[in-house]
Write a structure and sequence with these properties.
transmembrane helix, transmembrane, membrane, mainly alpha
Amino acid sequence: MSQSDVDTEQGSTFLDSIEFLTGKDPNAGAFLLVVGIVTAVFNAGFQLLLPTPISHILSALVLSVAVISLIFGAILDTLGHFDA
């Protein structure tokens, strides 16, 4: 077994293990849309329903999680997960 075969098997195993997050037919646009919608809904909910200091802290946390999700999506796109 050559090194490229091992790399291919490891890469496909990793991408197969995250299939529960992105579904059977992954799409980068759908992933980014879901991240954006969830961010907007949580941010609006926190801003409207909670007092000022708490809402700002939770909104910053939501935006931080959104940035991490976008970085995760970029990594998946670089690995070719959305091209499959």
